[in-house]
Design a protein that fits this description.
By secondary structure, the protein is mainly alpha-helical. Helices cover 47% and strands 6% of the residues. The protein binds a DNA duplex (22 and 22 nucleotides) through helix 4, strand 13, helix 15, helix 18 and helix 19. Residues 759-840 form a coiled coil.
DNA sequence: AGTTCGACTTAGCAGGCGTGCA
DNA sequence: TGCACGCCTGCTAAGTCGAACT
């Protein structure tokens, strides 16, 4: 939408980032009806956009094989298991080249239709007999031909034909038909029909009533039995037992402290249950609904074709959602616009403007009056006095208080996301086909709550009745609903610090630690399987190699109605490129549409395999691992080790890498230096897991500022050198190293710098003069005459003139008392400052697009941090935020300084 | 066996807030 | 003392994975 003259085009003027419109603007305003969207709103979605795949820009080759997390994590930063392309990353955003590059996915069905016969016929068996030959026309005709298409590798390394052989080489049964229209069609259809069957709402509990209670009852029995012989199982978990025995000493002191603060439930000291029954009593207030929509003041109206529209609250609210987003990228996004406008029009259909104007073009919509209103409101809010702000916050706290905690088996536990999600426009990430779609306002009738049988059923804070009330004690959620945009389930759970979350978190890390004992065998196995004659095995081994070495995610299949992102099993032909002799270039969009772009050197066999998996007749849009899916992979892993799945490798490798990296901590360093080492280790892990963040807006500027600071230091150093040489010309030869000019000290910078210094000096002198006079006045003395200041300013200017002269003559009059020794010392100090500033700079640069938090929260066993903190005597609060400490109390209790992952 | 569902973990974004610096 | 800036937190989207359903 680029109509330079349309009202909407005004939106595109750069606008300050705005705070998202919140729905709490004024709780005291009158209540207004909440709307219920018409069913047809949910209907058809705009066709998904084709997507362009950026051409890979490669950087930083990495030898994965030798730096894989488990192989060695060397002390040097080169030892990172992998490294990322600098700058090139970023979530994939709509690209203008879109049209030229058809959506891979989309292309598939077409390729499918055509490709079937063509490929099948073209690829004769004799085509393939070499190692580098492809698997024969795999998955060509989908199911029917599948078993016939299978080819085995007839000897260790080489692929050759033996079509008749191998029952065992069945492809994954289903094997998406050829270039696959994907199962998602069916899925989408099913979803659609489900959505249209409105009766769903009316008989909400039918299913649940059947399933849940039964489960619950069963579980309840087993739980009571469990209680009687609680330790039977425990005994098996010997390791944890040993730990428990050791502990009491350490704990006693701690206990006192903790109990003072608040009686905390120390679940990690309790016997473990069997994990199926989660609670016996459960009391809570479910969700807090946001206040109803408050119509805008009468004079705030969006315009259509220049005419102000008087909208009913229902449609005004939707207009406001868009209006509040002016200035963001979303507003300029075509898909976002289309989805929004479709839903907005539908809303207008039902709640038309008073003026009777038919809204047919988004370009004619001008939401700026709304935007400006929100801006004003925001300013007002900001300008409120402390008391007003506090009053507002108190009111909010009061409102939320009943929802903050749940009571579980008599214990108080903090609830997590108890606020019902307010309505708004769906902000899907990357190229999500539904971004911009209206997310409806939730009513009690949308929400199912899960609560104890004897617990009072909470009353919603807005009129209405819960969609359902169930008592399933095998699950941990308090409330749940389906959102309308993607028809996905949303849950209210307890907070991260709760026993439930803590227990499963700990179990996760224990599982990852268990992998330590199996990983050697697993690696051996997959290394052998890389040469397997059975394609499926070879693919599985290769995939596992990537999951293990590159920390790729499993990569489930995705539907057409989601952003096109992939993980290991769903990698497609175009996502990996081979560069002989042994380099593989990955370039794809992973979770959250974050780009994964790496060049890695792989084992020769892996390289060979990829070549085979990519061979004709495969092409763009085809699965790289056509005989593999996550279910199969995880089944295999589970056979290797109970409870093992692909994601465990990420946890294991992250924690393991972290622990290895921490060995670089300087034993005698300052706390700061130690923390720096800690953060470096953290960063390595974040890079391993490809955790990214957008570079902050002001980064370029602030980085340039830093660079200037470094240069200013160099400038000072230069002056010191000149003094030195003026004082003792012999030094020029003696210390030839000091005769060299500082790097990036060009004339232009120096001039600018000197001017800035002058400016500052003048300013400072003026201020000082004023201050002095104020003081004099206070003490009732005579003020200094203005002429004194003028003299001073002249003096300063003269001094600064000398600067440029000094620069040109490269000679500086030594300061009073200067000696060669003193100057040399000063220069050394300056060198240190420069070096430190440079380190800081490169650090900032390296970290600008790496998100450290995610790995800390989810992947790094917190006990590693606790142990490290104890060992190196670093206060834990410097490593963990309050929230993290609340999340990991068990780690603090459990890990002493000798603890190892 | 394939597909969908359910429950739970993992993820980046954006706004608020505290802090360090000029 | 004000203000930029970076960190923290809340929010909710987007994954994983096993079980249930068809």
């Amino acid at each position: 939408m680029s109509l330079p003259f349309s009202p909407l085009s005004k939106l595109y003027r750069p606008l300050p980032i705005l705070q998202l419109y919140r729905h709490y603007i004024s709780p005291s305003r009158p209540i207004c009806v909440s709307f219920r969207p018409s069913p047809h709103l949910q209907a058809s979605m705009a066709a998904s956009q084709p997507m362009a795949v950026e051409a890979p820009t490669l950087a930083h080759p990495v030898d994965v094989a030798s730096h894989a997390p488990h192989v060695n994590v060397s002390a040097s930063s080169n030892g990172r298991p992998n490294s990322r392309t600098n700058g090139a990353r970023k979530r994939y955003e709509e690209s203008s080249s879109e049209d030229e590059k058809p959506l891979a996915k989309k292309a598939r069905p077409v390729a499918n239709g055509n490709g079937n016969t063509a490929r099948g016929a073209a690829a004769s068996d004799s085509d393939l007999s070499e190692d580098d030959q492809p698997l024969a026309k795999k998955k060509v005709n989908g199911r029917t031909s599948a078993s016939k298409e299978i080819r085995d590798y007839s000897d260790d390394d080489d692929v050759s034909e033996s079509a008749s052989e191998s029952e065992s080489d069945e492809p994954l049964a289903k094997k998406k038909p050829a270039a696959k229209p994907r199962s998602s069609n069916a899925k989408a259809q099913a979803k659609k029909s489900a959505a249209t069957s409105s009766s769903e709402d009316e008989k909400p509990l039918a299913k649940r009533a059947k399933a849940a209670p039964k489960k619950a009852v069963k579980k309840e029995y087993s739980s009571s039995e469990e209680d009687e012989k609680p330790l039977a199982k425990k005994a098996k978990a010997s390791s944890s037992k040993v730990k428990e025995e050791k502990k009491p000493v350490v704990k006693k002191e701690k206990k006192v402290k903790e109990e003072e603060q608040e009686e905390q439930f120390k679940w990690w000291e309790q016997a473990e249950g069997d994990g199926t029954v989660k609670w016996t009593t459960l009391v809570h207030n479910a969700v807090l609904f946001p206040p109803p929509y408050v119509p805008l003041p009468k004079d705030v109206k969006m315009k259509y074709d220049g005419v102000p529209l008087t909208l009913p609250p229902e449609s005004e609210e939707v207009a406001g959602f868009f209006g509040a987003m002016l200035g963001t990228d979303h507003v300029e996004d075509k898909v976002f616009q289309a989805n929004f406008f479709r839903d907005f029009k539908a809303m207008l259909e039902q709640y038309p403007p008073k003026e009777g104007i038919k809204v047919t073009s988004l370009e004619k919509c001008d939401f700026r009056p709304m935007y400006e209103h929100f801006e004003r409101e925001r300013e007002k809010k900001k300008a409120m006095s402390k008391e007003e702000k506090k009053a507002l916050k108190d009111a909010k706290d009061e409102l939320e208080r009943p929802y903050l905690y749940a009571e579980i088996d008599g214990r108080k536990e903090k609830a997590g996301n108890f606020r019902a999600e307010p309505p708004g426009l769906f902000r899907g990430r990357g190229e999500h086909p539904r971004k911009g779609t209206l997310k409806h306002r939730l009513r009690p009738e949308d929400i199912i709550i899960n609560i104890g049988k004897d617990a009072p059923i909470p009353k919603p804070n807005i009129p209405g009745n819960w969609k359902g009330v169930q008592h399933d004690n095998t699950v941990t959620w308090l409330a749940h609903w389906k959102e309308n945009v993607n028809n996905q389930a949303k849950y209210v759970f307890l907070s991260a610090g709760s026993a439930w979350k803590g227990q499963s978190d700990r179990a996760k890390f224990e599982k990852a630690r268990e992998l330590i004992n199996h990983v050697d065998q697993i690696r051996k196995d997959y290394t052998v399987d890389l040469k397997s004659k059975i394609t499926a095995e070879r693919q599985r081994a290769t995939a596992l190699y990537f999951i293990d070495r590159l920390a790729l995610r499993a990569g489930n299949e995705k539907g057409e109605d989601e952003a096109d992102t992939v993980g290991c099993c769903s990698l497609r032909y175009e996502h990996v490129t081979l560069e002989p002799p042994n380099k593989v270039i990955f370039d794809f969009l992973g979770k959250d549409s974050m780009r994964f772009h790496q060049e890695v050197e792989v084992d020769a066999q892996v390289f060979k395999n990829i070549k085979i998996f990519k061979a004709e007749p495969k092409g763009k849009g085809d699965d790289l691992f056509d005989r593999l899916n996550t279910t199969g992979l995880n089944k295999y892993l589970n056979d290797q080790m109970k409870g093992l799945s692909a994601k465990v490798f990420r946890t294991y490798n992250a924690s393991w890498t972290f622990q290895q990296q921490l060995k670089n901590t300087p034993k005698n360093g300052s706390v700061q230096e130690k923390i720096a080492a800690y953060n470096t280790a953290n960063r390595e892990v974040a890079i391993l897991c490809n955790h990214q963040k957008t570079v902050s807006k002001g980064f370029a500027e602030s980085f340039a500022k830093m660079a200037d600071k470094v240069r200013a230091l160099k400038y000072q150093r230069m002056k010191l050198r000149y003094q030195l040489f003026t004082l003792e010309p012999k030094m020029k030869k003696k210390r030839a190293d000091l005769a060299e000019t500082e790097s990036d000290m060009d004339e232009e910078f120096m001039e600018r710098h000197e001017e800035e210094l002058l400016e500052k000096a003048l300013e400072a002198a003026k201020k000082k003069f004023e201050r002095d006079n104020v003081k004099l006045e206070e003490s009732q003395e005579k003020k200094k005459p203005k002429s004194e200041l003028d003299d001073r300013l002249k003096e300063i200017k003269a001094e600064f003139k000398a600067l440029s002269k000094e620069r040109k003559t490269k000679s500086v009059e030594p300061k009073k008392g200067a000696t060669v020794e003193k100057l040399l010392e000063q220069i050394t100090k300056m060198d240190e400052r420069i070096a430190a500033a440079k380190v800081q700079m490169s650090d900032r640069d390296k970290t600008k697009d790496v998100a450290l938090g995610t790995s800390k929260i989810n992947y790094i066993d917190p006990r590693i941090t606790v142990a490290w903190a104890k060992k190196y005597d670093v206060p834990l609060e410097k490593l963990f935020t309050k929230a993290l400490r609340e999340k990991f109390p068990w780690a603090e209790a459990e890990a002493d300084e000798d603890w190892v992952f």
